[in-house]
Design brief:
Layout lengths: L7 E3 L9 E2 L3 H10 L7 E5 L4 E10 L4 E11 L6 E5 L4 H13 L4 E6 L10 H15 L6 E2 L3 E2 H6 L6 E5 L6 E2 H6 L6 E5 L7 H8 L4 E5 L7 H15 L10
Parallel strand pairs: 1-3, 6-7, 6-12, 7-8, 7-9, 10-12, 10-13, 11-13
Antiparallel strand pairs: 2-5, 3-4, 4-5
This protein binds S-adenosylmethionine.
């Protein structure tokens, strides 16, 4: 496999060898005007469905270009079925959460509005562009699905019963994260992290009474929301996910 090709782009169209792929306008600008690539230059492309390929710039027009899909270099691999629910925080910290969660292999991101969520507007399109950029950079082969923001209560009302929801409970009444993760056989799971102001008492009571939830503690120190997201996802990947060679076979 050629490893010196640095450019790696996501294709929303499913790819196959010996076909021509049309980058979108943003990608054409990047390839031609930023990287100044020419006919014959090679890039990597993945489509989130069939795997990853080497493509070669085939033709360049005034404002377009086509790429010939030459060779498949990686078979498709899906990330674990791990969802992240988080209460959006300030823009730059939310950006950090979106990129970090993508790199940590979540399969779906659900912005969750709670009583103490302080954030202007949740821009789903912005999140969708960010997960693609993070996936291109971290070499994952699929793209997390980004959901529309919804209130926590509504999410719980329609929650799939076969999916375990671990909520990060900073009050100290949650169970030990390693113990809980190690002893939960579910392969369909989700992690929920609250806002800077924490969950309200009402929200904690609502979460605790659900049959599909478990309260999880990450020690005595209070973590910032963005720290808590990365810590919880990292623990799950290390104990149950694809960081754990044994588990991910
Ligand atoms: N305002 C809260 C307080 O002072 O207690 C802190 C909220 S914390 C900034 C944001 C979220 O991160 C919490 O709602 C929780 O989901 C998670 N979190 C932070 N520290 C945690 C811990 N030690 N254990 C479990 N979850 C934690």
């Amino acid at each position: 496999m050629k490893t010196n090709i640095k450019v790696r782009l996501f294709s929303s169209q499913t790819l196959s060898t010996d076909t021509l792929w049309q980058p979108d306008d943003r990608q054409i600008h990047y390839l031609l005007n930023v990287l100044r690539l020419n006919v014959g230059d090679e890039i990597k492309i993945f489509d989130g469905q069939s795997g990853e390929y080497i493509g070669q710039i085939y033709a360049i027009g005034k404002k377009n270009c086509s790429v010939k899909i030459m060779q498949k270099i990686r078979e498709m691999e899906h990330s674990p079925d791990l969802w992240l629910l988080f209460a959006p925080v300030k823009k730059d910290k939310t950006d950090f959460i979106i990129a970090g969660a993508t790199e940590l292999g979540v399969s779906r991101i659900l912005p969750t509005m709670t009583e103490r969520t302080i954030c202007e507007r949740v821009n789903k399109e912005r999140f969708e562009a960010q997960v693609i950029e993070a996936a291109e950079q971290c070499r994952r082969l699929d793209i997390p699905q980004v959901s529309n923001p919804q209130p926590l209560e509504k999410i719980l009302q329609t929650w799939p019963q076969d999916r375990m929801l671990f909520f990060m409970d900073e009050t100290g009444s949650g169970g030990d994260i390693c113990n809980i993760f190690q002893n939960t056989p579910n392969t369909k799971v989700a992690v929920l992290v609250g806002p800077e102001g924490g969950f309200s008492e009402k929200e904690l009571a609502l979460l605790r009474k659900q049959s599909f939830t478990k309260a999880v503690s990450m020690g005595k120190r209070i973590l910032r929301a963005e720290t808590a997201v990365l810590a919880a996802l990292s623990c799950w990947q290390a104990i149950c996910g694809d960081w754990n060679e044994r588990k991910s076979k």
